[in-house]
Write a structure and sequence with these properties.
With about 280 residues, the chain is α+β, with helices and mostly antiparallel strands. It has one domain. It is about 15% helix and about 30% strand. The chain is built from five helices and 16 strands. The chain has helices spanning about 105-115, 125-130, 170-175, 205-210, 240; strands at about 1-10, 15-25, 30, 40, 90-100, 135-140, 155, 165, 180, 185, 195, 200-205, 220, 245, 250-255, 270-280. The strands form five sheets. Strands 1, 2, 5, 6, 7, 9 and 12 form a seven-stranded mixed sheet that branches. The model is unreliable at about 140-155 and about 225-235 (pLDDT under 50).
Length: about 280
């Protein structure tokens, strides 16, 4: 797996796009047959492989970084710079990907994000986050997926954020060797198309300062109702059944979960990943 993010900075006074970038981590998982192109992670085998409850990078059940932010490894530096009150706004779209071959869908996702450059900042839900100084995650609503579920505390559903389409049935995506994003759902209005929830985080200096002034979030519970039974190689880690601890303020959890896959020819159950994002002041 690897994480990726599309980051934009806007001038709030004019709505002008000041900068944008796409970035991603190196792949993590089983290094067998992959060598140095992948970073070993997970407990399935002696060469790695992610199973229920595994953390990347491995460590205590703490949802804060324990290492300096990195350019292409966890903890990933998504953006660093100066934000000015009343002037700057960041719009960040985080994703988690399963690495399984070519990166065609990833490149398509980047192109779709670039198309959104001129419109996402004007969306009502994005503007509401700014005016309300709201520190949280926006996610577009989709058939069969409730973005305001208890699975993701602090999330707001917003039909105007965007559903990104991949233009092919889910079963086709899972039967080819291609990287694919976690969180895909079937499009109820077009069953021959697969959609992706476009999780969106809006940050301003005012939002960050308000978030850092709050108490620490404390325990972030594991996904409600998830059946983490572990695998033949061993039991799931405590994180899979208990959750993670956020000992500092300024931490968001982005819950990514595949939609129902009834009729899809795959031995795997829908994937669940939780991505933790931390904001902090830099001296």
């Amino acid at each position: 797996m690897y994480a990726a993010a599309f980051v934009r900075r806007y001038d709030r006074r004019t709505g002008t796009l000041a900068e944008f970038a796409s970035l991603k981590t190196l792949p993590y998982g089983d290094v067998n047959f992959f060598g140095a192109s992948r970073i070993q992670a997970g407990r399935i085998s002696a060469t790695g492989g992610l199973m229920d409850g595994d953390q990347v990078p491995d460590g205590a059940m703490i949802a804060t970084r324990s290492l300096p932010a990195q350019e292409a490894m966890f903890p990933l530096r998504v953006w660093q710079g100066t934000l000015t009150d009343g002037q700057d706004a960041l719009v960040i779209n985080p994703t988690v990907w399963e690495q399984d071959g070519n990166n065609g869908l990833y490149l398509q996702w980047v192109q779709q994000q670039q198309i959104l450059n001129l419109s996402i900042f004007t969306r009502a839900s994005v503007q509401e986050q700014i005016t309300q100084n709201a520190f949280g995650v926006l996610a577009s609503g989709a058939s069969g997926v409730n973005g305001s579920s208890a699975l993701n505390a602090g999330i707001r559903t917003a039909a105007d954020v965007a559903l990104l389409g991949f233009g092919m049935p889910l079963v086709n995506l899972l039967q080819v060797s291609s990287d694919r994003p976690i969180g895909m759902v079937l499009n109820a209005s077009a069953p021959d198309q697969t959609m992706l929830l476009n999780h969106t985080i809006v940050l301003t200096r005012e939002i960050i300062e308000a978030a850092l002034a709050q108490p620490a979030r404390g325990m972030i519970a594991a996904p409600a109702g998830a059946n983490f039974a572990g695998m033949a190689t061993g039991p799931a880690s405590p994180m899979a059944s208990i959750g993670m601890i956020a000992p500092k303020p300024g931490i968001l959890m982005v819950h990514m979960q595949d939609g129902p896959m009834a009729g899809v020819l795959t031995p795997d159950r829908p994937a669940i990943y939780e991505l933790f994002i931390q904001v902090e002041r830099v001296p």
